[in-house]
Amino acid sequence: MPVNLSAPNPAELFAVAGVRIGVAEAGIRKVNRKDLTVILIDEGASVSGVLTQNRFCAAPVQLCREHLAAGHGIRALLINTGNANAGTGQEGLLRARSTCQALARQLKLRPEQVLPFSTGVIMEPLPHDRIEAGLPAALLDARADNWLRAAQGIMTTDTIPKASSARALLNGANVTVTGISKGAGMIRPNMATMLGFLATDAKVAPQLLPKIARLVADRSFNRITVDGDTSTNDSFIVIATGKADNLEFKTLEEAAALVELLSRVATTLAQAIVRDGEGATKFITIQVQGGKTPEECRKVAYAIAHSPLVKTAFYASDPNLGRILAAVGYAGIDDLDPNQIDLFLD
Fold this sequence. Notes:
32% of the residues lie in helices and 19% in strands. It is built from nine helices and nine strands. It has helices spanning 59-70, 89-107, 128-140, 147-153, 209-219, 256-275, 294-306, 308-315, 321-329, and strands at 19-24, 36-41, 46-51, 76-83, 114-121, 162-170, 173-182, 195-200, 235-240. Strands 3-9-8-7-6 form a five-stranded mixed beta sheet, with helices on both faces. It has a four-stranded mixed beta sheet with strand order 1-2-4-5, sandwiched between helices.
């Protein structure tokens, strides 16, 4: 069971102007299951992303990097569950390209304007024919208020869909942010086995969005762990449609409030992944202060979070300070002075 996590209320998920979503049952791995999602993006929007740092990255991740770099303007995201298309070699790339080409034909776009995402079982051939056959139904289903169906459609071992929204007055206009994510196992940032999609109607300079996406990821999805494993398919995408009436954000300083709004939604989604983690019985927050650098603090936090002995203590509700201090001691801080450590529980 998820830890203090309930299904999102569809009435609390706001449509984002310039984005429509369609979901279909393509029978990719199981019948009668939502497993194919398309996210359609109006022309003029900016799209950026943060992708897995696992060197053994899946075919769709490779194509995402290629298509984002092409600079033709991303107009659609194509997401399938049930098959990760990872460990599939050149054939996997060909099949992923085929799905992008099929969606591009129907939308009269270039294939490079489509970003593919896959999640599920690895080292099995992607059933691209089923995906392509399911596209008409997904496109027919496309509408602006389909965020909850999309959250359901990207689930794999998740027990509950993950979606969140927020609104705020920024730069003289009402700005909306809505996002979905999936993930429960192989969760450790850089990125983890997760998919996350965040959309806002704010006007953002295209050259600024990659910086915002990285900053938001580092504040949210790159600060969670369940089991310490980094997956082959992890992707976090940020879409800015520019449909709001705000003055365009051109610098990080100008966009500080927008980054906070995006980070709030992304953090909710990231924490939902931990709460729904495979085998999770508790949700633990670790705060580290006083390090020389943020990286030094992260080292200590992950040493604690990944320690099997610390995890067993948490599982048993046993406040075993020694196990926590031991993890701090081997975190790799060469000039650590143990006499200067303060430790607080709860």
